[in-house]
Structures are given as C-alpha cells and as structure tokens.
## 1
Amino acid sequence: MHTAITESEERMKKTIANLKEGFAALRTGRASPALFDKIKVDCYGDKSPLNQVANISIPEARLIVIQPYDKGLIGEIEKAIRSSELSLNPSNDGKVIRISIPTLTEDRRKELVKIAKNQAEQSRTAVRNIRRDGNDKLKKLLKEGELTEDEESKNSGELQKLTDAYITKVNQVLEEKDKEIMEV
C-alpha cells in the first residue's frame, strides 16, 4: 500500500475519533463523565479541565456526583457547570456536587438528533476531502514518474474503498448516537 493511502487512512481514523468525541459531549438523557470534558474551572488563577480538579462519578443512570480534590473549589466548579452550554443545575452540600440529569423532552431529542446529523455530515465531508487530497497526491506522483498509470489507478481504487468504509463507519456511529438520544 502506498504512503498516500496510509496517510489518508490515519486522517480518516482521526475524523472518526473527533466525531465520537463530539458526540460524547452531546447531552442525552443519560449521565456520562464525558459531558464535562470541555468544562474548564478557574483554579488558582488558571483554567483547568474539570476532570483534573475533581473526581466525577455516576452512581445512578441519571445522577452525577463531582467530588473536588480541594473543597475550596466547589463554588468555582458549580459556576463553571452553570455557565456551560449543558443547561444543568448543580447543587452542593459543602463536600460534593450532585447533578440530576433531567429526562429530555421530545423537542430537545429531535434538536440533538439534528445536531448529531450535522456533525456526521461534516465528518463525511472531511473523509471525502481526505480522499481528494490522497488522489491529488497520487496524480502528482504519476506526473513526476514515481508511479505508473496502473499503480495510480490501483491506489486510487484502494483509496475509494477506504473512503466508502469510513463513510459507513460515520453512519454507524451516527446510528448508535441517534438510538441513544431517542431512547426514553
């Protein structure tokens, strides 16, 4: 297999990983520590990721418990969660923060599915752009005489198979997220 194809496959793998990461941040009706991956807390004059200043646990399907390593950060953690896009309402007892994950309304579920479909479409476009870049690289190598026409054609076919496989993966990841969002 040619390096242009290997490089393209690596980029496609990253596209799928980014899609999964984006989906993890979409709040479904289920509690998940991944919801807080993008939340930064003001900590001693610096912004730190929430998971570095507190332990996040899920004792029940709709409950998240956040236990700060330093009790003095409870207010800052609460403020960071309230000001996030998650629309969650944390409460604390001076030691831990508890967050109940409310069930999603039908409208909110449909909105989340739309967001997920949009992210998936962006990933499919990224995969197709990677294919285009790979094909451009193969054509350049053909022009420079480093590949024969047969090799270029064979590699181009391999690149198309890879593209089809990764578009299918994007669709599978979307289907799983869609199911997760719509389950009551």
## 2
Amino acid sequence: MRFIIVVILGFLGFVSANAEHIRGMVLDEAGNPLSYATIRLENQRIATLSDSLGNFGLQIYGVNDSLIISYIGYKTRKFAIESLSDKSVVRFSLEPNVTNLPEVVVYPQSKIKYKNRKKGKKHGWAFLKSCLNGETAGDCFGYEFHSKKNRKLLLDKVGFFYCEGDSQMTKMKFRINIYDMSSVKKSPSSEFINILSKPIYFEYVLNNQLSGKFEYILPDKIELPENAMVEIEFLENLKNEIFWFKSNLIGKRTWSKSIIDGEWEKNPFATPFFIECIELKD
C-alpha cells in the first residue's frame, strides 16, 4: 500500500511541475475589455470567466490544447496554446458577430397593460433550505417557457428568495441569457440560440434583512421566442461566502449548465431562481 501511495504522489508532483499558468485579457476590436467572457480549454475540463476588466488566469497542463473564448455578440475564437510566445499577459481580441440574429422585440414599461399576468417559476412558499458555495462563476440555471397560441410572453423579472444562514452571500453579479430552443431535439448544447446581441446584467447586494425576496425588474420587457429558455448566470465566485436560498424539491422544465463542460442538462430538482413573465394576447 505504501508503494502505491508513493507512486500516486510522485505522479501528482509530476503533473503539478508541468502545469503552466496563462494570464490574459479579453478585448474587443477597439481594445476595450470584455467583461465576463467565457474562456475554456478545448480538450480539458478547465474553464473560467474574465473579470469586470476582461482579465483572467487559467492553469493548464500541457501545450497540446487550445483556448476557446466566447462572448455574447462576438465571434467565438480558438487560440492554440503552443502558438502563444508569452503566457504572462496575453491579449485576446474578439470580432463582432455579423450573423443576423432573430429580432429582439422590446416593450417599454409605459406601453404594457397588466391585463393578464403569467407567473413563472416561483417558490417563495418553499420550506426547503438549500445553499451553494465555492466556485460558482459561469454556472447557470434556467427555465423553459412556451407561448400559447396567439399569446406573447414578455420577460418581466428575475430573482430569488434568500434566507438566514452562516456567511450568507452579501453581493453577487449575474447575467441574463435568453435562448431560442425551437430546434432542440435531444442534445441542446449545440442547438440553443442566444437571441441577445449584448449582455443583460444585474447585481444583488444584501440589505439589512436576513431573509427575504430579491428581484430584478427589467426596465424594458423583452419578448421571448415561442419556445424559450431564460437563464441566470453567476459571474463571480462565492469565495468564503455561502448562498442560502429557498427552493422546491421537484423542478419542472428546469435546466442547469456548468462552466466546466458548457452543456445544458435538465434538472429533476428546482433551482435557486424564479422568473416571471407577462402574458399578452395578440
């Protein structure tokens, strides 16, 4: 047994000794930083987000791999690691995506009459207390929405019900993604189409209440595709804090995605967020 342990430790030491650290910055074509871009290794289960200034750091093992960098409204690019001469501070530039996206219809608040309101995923009454901690940046949770005939769904608000707990999360930045999932059959990962041309951000800051409801109301309502998935993405890690929230045990039309593999999966359980839409008749 001792011999096996020595071999394993020796192997881990070899891997660690051969690890390299890449530090970089993701920029647009004019040299402006792109906040919260996704950086993923093509052949390893390693990924990260750039910070609010476009900076990122990534540990890699071996140079026979490529960085895949993506950002809403820009072309996804691949960079071979072995082609990077200096890995201390690398500047990665992305180009705007000129592909025609589905037209995003926006409804100003003043033009909406609340005759018929559809409640989305909501669980303020739930008795189940759950938590998330650790590396959360880039992890996503979402819900399906399907419009009825001659009806439109407008994304109105998103949020969560937080509750008292040790080291409760004091602040967090989030991003809203909206996907057209009309083409999804079996594997959705390559068939979700993000309809947004630029990100939608919101920020949570804990107030003096230890338990309560947090919600972000969109100033202008966005019309969802007939078959849509609305996704909430963490943009930062929790470090030493914990996100305590209320949830249901069973979820319906619920999705999640880890930044590590970048693929969406259906969840059998409820996720932290609620999403509400306004239903309009044509």
## 3
Amino acid sequence: MGYVLDLPQNQKEKFPLIVFLHGSGERGTDLELVKAHSPFTYKNLFSSQPVAILAPQCTENIWWDTNAVFELIQEIVSKYNIDTSRIYLTGLSMGGWGSWKLALEHPDMFAALAPVCGPTDRMMIFLAEKLKGMPIKIFHGALDDIVPPTDSIEMYQALKKNNSNVELIIFPNDNHNSWDSTYSNPDFYNWLFNQHK
C-alpha cells in the first residue's frame, strides 16, 4: 500500500497524527492524487501545529482494506514520535466509509473521527454502540446525489443513543463535495486537535 506521510520538522515532543482516507477517484498508483481533496490542501490552517498526516492510497478497483490501513498506522506509530492519545481519523466518500469501518474495528486507536459524505451500511449502524465514547463529527451535503445524506443521518441517530459527543453537520448547498466545506474550516482543526483519548 503506497502512502504519503507528512511529518513536522525538528519536532522533539510527541505530535498528533491525522489519518486521511481518500475517495474512489484517487485510487491507483499516483500518490499526488491522495493530496487533491484533503487536509493537505488546507495545511496552512493548522501549520502552527506540529502534526503528521498519513494518507494511504487504495489500489484500483477495490474499496479500503482496513486491515492493511491498521497495520500501516501501527508501523508509522512504531517508527515515529506519534502521540498515541491523539490519532485522528477522517476520510471522504469511499474514505468516509473506510473511516467508519476502521473506527468500528479499532475504536481504541482513535481520539476522534470525522467521516465526510461517507456511505454506511446496516452492519455499521448495528455496531454503532462500539463508538460510544468517541468524539465524532459527521459531515454531509444536503444535495448529495452520490451518497444520500440519509446514510449519515441514520448513523448519527444510531450513535446518539449511546454517545453524547457526536455531531452531524449538513451543508445545505453542497452536493457530493462536502469535503471543501469541511476541510477549509479552521474550526474543524481546532476541534480535532482538542480531542485526546
């Protein structure tokens, strides 16, 4: 699995890690694609924060292999000075689905979760209780005609039964691209970096 890893320079203290999972259009072998619609684009909004960004790349014609992503995160954590109480997971569209799946499989790994326009399924909704203690912000465009907003709404409703720290943000004028509205907002990063396990 190819990946982009952006590390803070000359950092002696432990630093947080953002794990970003891209959408279906960025699959393949061109690693530049994974930066296209992502926190990389808006790094200036949190450049004062020493933070690492890990963005793996999904191969063509498949969806996220969350076991491989989990192993990659463990490898990065073992090699670098990552603050394991501040690992954050976000992804868009297919990567939003991957974020839900990975967080449900390893809820103890992440300090916060932020899926953007991610598809969900019945099993995810059934397992929502596993995320009962995790700070979660869910983002979706009201006009999304690729992944219906009901995917995020139903997951939010399932989570709310056991998690008071979950928020659903629907952008009224966004279609499938709700990632720019999400990742261009400085408040998103302020919220993210304030979360600790």
